[in-house]
Design goal:
Elements (H helix, E strand, L loop, with lengths): L1 E2 L28 E2 L23 E3 L8 E3 L15 H21 L2 H4 L3 H27 L7 E2 L26 H9 L2 H29 L3 H27 L1
Parallel strand pairs: 1-5
Antiparallel strand pairs: 2-3, 3-4
Helix pairs in contact: 1-3, 1-5, 4-5, 5-6
Length: 248
């Protein structure tokens, strides 16, 4: 199934969402090597492999402790850190599914909601999460990892190729059940507004928890940054939805 996260009949002429990229900063060395000049690495050049020093190495101590020296034969280069782990992969793949359900929910609002504020909120959620889906899919594809659904970015670069994913979508935290989705689709007016807001609060709370989990268990810098963005943005929207719900 090809999923085009751009709106069809209700997109109001919005441009296709674009991928965002962020560069990584170069990490400095952990120890100071006397009588040796270390070249600075750049994002465009691979960091040189660590080699044993030819002179004494000064190893800084912990706060309040003096530095120590290490003989060249005792020097052990730090092991390179992994760029990503399975927790990062699960976060990107699962969040695609999570966002797609939010898009499906929000696309119901223009024809069913009674409140203009609910329609505006749904419109914003759709646009933000559609944009994030492309970034999530791109991260996986750039690492030759399977994208869980076919996502057409609409920018001429071609669809993101779909692949397998071990997690059960229905078990993801915050996801609405089939029964909840059917009830939402069948509702209209004030009842739709109530169901949409309560359902999306549940949905957002699940995404916030997913963001917290990857910040604890993951190692990828981009995953951590995106988790920050998603967690902060959706937590703010939860407060807005609670206010709208109280006014119904």
């Amino acid at each position: 199934m090809t999923v085009d996260v751009r709106r069809t009949s209700s997109n109001n002429g919005r441009d296709p969402v674009r991928r965002r990229r962020r560069s990584r900063a170069c990490t400095g060395a952990a120890v100071v090597v006397l009588a040796t000049t270390l070249g600075a690495c750049t994002p465009d050049e691979p960091e040189p492999a660590a080699v044993p020093p030819s002179s004494v190495v000064v190893q800084p101590g912990r706060p309040g402790e003096a530095a120590t020296t290490i003989a060249p034969e005792d020097y052990e280069a730090p092991a390179p850190a992994s760029d990503w782990n399975q927790a990062d992969v699960d976060f990107f793949a699962d969040m695609i599914h999570h966002h797609l359900q939010a898009l499906e929910m929000s696309e119901l609002a223009p024809d069913r909601a009674a409140s203009a504020d609910v329609v505006a909120l749904a419109d914003r959620i759709h646009d933000v999460q559609a944009s994030e889906i492309h970034g999530l899919a791109a991260w996986l594809q750039e690492r030759d990892l399977p994208v869980p659904v076919v996502v057409d970015p609409g920018d001429g670069s071609g669809p993101r190729v779909a692949g397998g994913h071990d997690h059960d979508v229905e078990d993801m935290t915050g996801m609405l059940s089939d029964a909840q989705m059917a009830e939402l689709a069948a509702a209209s007016g004030a009842e739709f507004d109530r169901l949409y807001l309560t359902g999306m609060i549940q949905h957002h709370e699940g995404a916030v928890q997913m963001a917290v989990d990857v910040q604890v268990e993951g190692v990828d810098e981009r995953a951590n940054e995106l988790a920050d963005d998603i967690g902060a943005g959706q937590q703010a929207e939860i407060g807005r939805m609670q206010d709208l719900l109280a006014d119904l």
